[in-house]
């Protein structure tokens, strides 16, 4: 039982437990036993913090069922190994080497040192952001639905947003709050910080503290911090501009809105495409160009160590820097005057190729199972599931059981990661001292 297998099987165990809980009569408003496929799909979507739904969460599930979904989102966002290891720490168990390796792989950390402290900091940071988000959302929901519902809606949407889940307790998701500046600001802020990675948040906190206290800057920004922040800002701003330019004349999405509301909705769509799954416009009414831009954003996803999916911002940056180096005739890849090791380049290529191959296979499977659907909508659905986004053009509920199971597999693969899953299936690689002679071949 390797660490990768423990992580993969742990997620499966949580999904199965969630499925059983959501199948119980207390989880549905009808008081009847739930459909197993609906329960499995919803549990997988919650644990994998995706937000894909085949039923209306607001009306189909009872308050108990919604609470189960929120708990699954929390466990899935923190990660199976993070939650179980933290609980063992609370029980007084010693932090062993295997636990440190598990945390290192689950959070994609570079070192083993400080795993105990980083684990406690992650839980504290999560609670801080979620409680702050819930408090701010009270000012949005309480005037509309009262204190009892408003408090529940605030907590649920804050947890869902920070964990990049995208589950909402409104039948139209958040379309009804399209013009609410406070809700758009809070939800997008939670999404960005939840998906950017905990190590980036910690470094940002140290930098802000030193500037506020006017201390001499002692914190050296890591390469991971610089790449994650700069790439995230580029994608957010670029995505906002692209979506606004493409959809500004589409009367079914942004065309009927005033310019400030157009920019606000385009910003929200750009942020939520980074693996959150909330929506303030009807994705099914977007143009093909708008859908394709969203697909690209969903496939890139968030940053390592966060709650987001996709190939990650750092992977995309390494690949673009590699392309730039080739075009400039360089034999090494450097980012911010730091040379990228060959092992990292190989990992980036492996993640990208494995991810694209998985998306292609899943798209073919759903195209065969539901041949009446448009290709762009199928690709959108698959990319959304793999990137653990949860956005949909409205075809999810009408898919055949086979297609729904394919999406379940895609959400799971997107959450645990392609390389981690392959490592769990094949086992740890065996070291080899064999070196083969080099030989060139034609490429490109």
Describe this structure in words.
With 444 residues, the chain is mostly helical. The chain has a domain at 229-399 and 413-419. Helix content is 64%, strand content 1%. The protein has helices at 3-23, 36-47, 57-60, 63-78, 80-90, 97-107, 115-162, 181-196, 198-212, 223-247, 259-272, 288-300, 313-327, 342-369, 375-386, 401-416, 418-426, and strands at 334-335, 338-339. The protein has a two-stranded antiparallel sheet. The model has no long low-confidence stretch (mean pLDDT 88).
Total beta strand runs: 2
Strand fraction: under 5%
Principal-axes shape call:
globular
Low-confidence parts: none
Strand arrangement within the widest β-sheet reads 1-2
Q: Give the helix proportion (percent range).
A: 55-70%
The secondary structure category is mainly alpha
The N- and C-terminal alpha carbons lie at a distance of 41 Å
Give the biggest beta sheet.
2 strands, antiparallel
Specify the number of helices: 17
Provide the residue-averaged pLDDT: 88
Q: Write the element-wise H/E pattern from the N-terminal end onward.
A: HHHHHHHHHHHHHEEHHHH
């Amino acid at each position: 039982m390797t660490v990768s297998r423990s992580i993969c099987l742990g997620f499966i165990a949580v999904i199965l437990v969630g499925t059983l809980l959501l199948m119980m009569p207390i989880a549905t408003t009808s008081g009847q036993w739930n459909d197993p496929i609906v329960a499995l799909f919803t549990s997988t979507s919650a644990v994998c913090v995706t937000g894909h739904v085949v039923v209306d969460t607001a009306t189909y599930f009872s308050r108990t069922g919604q609470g189960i979904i929120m708990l699954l989102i929390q466990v899935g966002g923190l990660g199976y190994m993070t939650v179980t290891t933290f609980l063992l720490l609370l029980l007084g168990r010693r932090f062993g080497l295997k636990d440190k390796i598990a945390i290192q792989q689950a959070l994609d950390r570079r070192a083993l040192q400080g795993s105990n402290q980083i684990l406690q900091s992650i839980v504290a940071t999560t609670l801080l952001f979620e409680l702050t988000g819930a408090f701010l959302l009270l000012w949005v929901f309480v005037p509309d639905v009262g204190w009892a519902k408003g408090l529940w809606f605030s907590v649920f949407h804050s947890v869902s947003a920070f964990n990049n889940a995208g589950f909402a307790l409104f039948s139209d998701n958040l379309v009804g709050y399209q013009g609410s500046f406070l809700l758009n600001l809070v939800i997008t802020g939670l999404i960005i910080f939840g998906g950017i990675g905990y190590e980036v948040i910690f470094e940002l906190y140290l930098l802000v503290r030193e500037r506020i206290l006017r201390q001499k800057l002692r914190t050296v920004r890591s390469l991971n911090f610089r790449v994650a922040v700069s790439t995230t800002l580029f994608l957010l701003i670029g995505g906002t501009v692209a979506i606004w330019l493409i959809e500004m004349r589409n009367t079914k999405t942004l065309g009927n809105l005033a310019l400030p509301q157009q920019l606000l909705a385009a910003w929200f769509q750009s942020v939520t495409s980074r693996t959150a799954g909330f929506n303030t416009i009807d994705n099914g009414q977007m143009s093909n160009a708008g859908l394709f831009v969203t697909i690209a954003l969903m496939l890139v996803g968030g940053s390592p160590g966060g709650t987001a999916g996709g190939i990650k911002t750092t992977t995309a940056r390494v690949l673009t820097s590699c392309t730039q180096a080739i075009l400039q005739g360089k034999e090494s890849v450097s980012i911010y005057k730091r040379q990228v090791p060959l092992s990292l380049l190989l990992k980036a290529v492996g993640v990208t190729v494995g991810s694209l191959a998985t998306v292609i296979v899943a798209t073919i499977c759903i195209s065969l199972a539901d041949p009446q659907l448009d290709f762009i909508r199928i690709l959108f659905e698959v990319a959304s599931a793999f990137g653990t986004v949860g956005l949909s053009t409205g075809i999810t509920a009408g898919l055949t059981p086979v297609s729904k199971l394919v999406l379940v597999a895609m959400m799971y693969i997107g959450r645990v990661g392609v390389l981690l899953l392959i490592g769990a299936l094949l086992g740890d690689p065996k070291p080899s001292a064999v070196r083969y002679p080099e030989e060139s071949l034609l490429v490109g």
